Amino acid sequence: MSEQSQNRSVDAHYGRRDLGERILAGLRTARGSLDGVTPEDLAPVDHFHLRGKVATLELAGRAGIARGMRVLDVGGGIGGAARTLAGEFGCTVTVLDLTEEYCRVGEMLTDLVGLRHLVTFRHGSALTMPFEDASFDLVWTEHSSMNVAEKERLYAEIDRVLRPGGRLALHEIMAGPVMPIHLPAPWARDSSISFLRAPEEIRAVLASAGFQELAWVDVSDASLAWLRERAAAAGEGLPPLGVHVLLGEEAGAMIGNVARNLGERRVRVVQGVFERG
């Protein structure tokens, strides 16, 4: 599959033309109106990664986030992490995402909570980032590299756009020791756009790209426990907002397969922080 075809497939996997309307409807159900919506109100749906906002704050602590940092969120989706870094830490954040609808909805939600002065969205590929060299203090990525086959190109681009001494903070799903994985999953309905590598391979790619490892923590057990807690709560019915709004009708099967893959050691979940040389 060509890179262009792969990009179209990824966009088609995530894009839903009614996504913004569904999120607004969920907000009205949860809150009664759209007046005074805060990033916290959006947290159940816009942190599209395991352990949600808790994991975002955990990674921010590991990365040493500081006020005024220029942050690039690669594959940042509809902007949950970006709005957290902007609203709670005072960072200026650019979200780069391959899914055009995510960028459109992300802009709408950022307007809704009054953070457009700190958070912007760019539609584009992580393999050919539309930014100048050394543009950012920190590159952030949560659950986005699963759809990228060319990890070497990805981390080379991240290296290029980071300033010397800048940091990469990642929270990613990686290949476990047991294969194959069960699909569909939130990032792929089939293997054509799923590209997982083992943790040791990713560490080696990052080292080859010149990154110095500052932190590397396997959070698989905590991620599985979090999923099981939510599965138990789902017996009481789905809430108005959650990642099921992003995933659509296959949400149950996709999330169930993530739990199964974790339980069977087919995937691992890692947080890491690296410094550019």
Report what the structure shows.
There is one protein chain. The chain has 277 residues and is of the alpha/beta class. The protein has one domain (3-276): Vaccinia Virus protein VP39 (Rossmann fold). 44% of the residues lie in helices and 20% in strands. It contains eleven helices and seven strands. The chain has helices at 3-14, 19-31, 39-46, 52-63, 80-89, 100-112, 151-161, 199-208, 220-233, 243-247, 251-263; strands at residues 70-74, 92-97, 119-123, 136-142, 162-175, 211-218, 267-276. A seven-stranded mixed beta sheet has the order 3-2-1-4-5-7-6, sandwiched between helices. Strand 2 (92-97), helix 6 (100-112) and strand 3 (119-123) form a beta-alpha-beta unit. Helix 3 packs antiparallel against helix 5 (80-89), helix 4 (52-63) crosses helix 5 and helix 9 (220-233) packs across helix 11. The relative contact order is 0.16.
- Which word captures the global form? globular
CATH architecture: 3-Layer(aba) Sandwich
In whole angstroms, the N-to-C terminal distance is 34 Å
Q: Which strand order does the major sheet show?
A: 3-2-1-4-5-7-6
| Total tally of structural domains | 1
How many β-strands, per DSSP? 7
Series of H and E elements: HHHHEHEHEEHEHEHHHE
Helix content: 40-55%
**Mean of residue pLDDT?**
96
Class per helix and strand makeup: alpha/beta
Largest sheet: 7 strands, mixed
CATH topology: Rossmann fold
Rounded Rg: 18 Å
CATH superfamily: Vaccinia Virus protein VP39
Low-confidence region ranges: none
Tell me the β content. 15-25%
How many distinct helices? 11
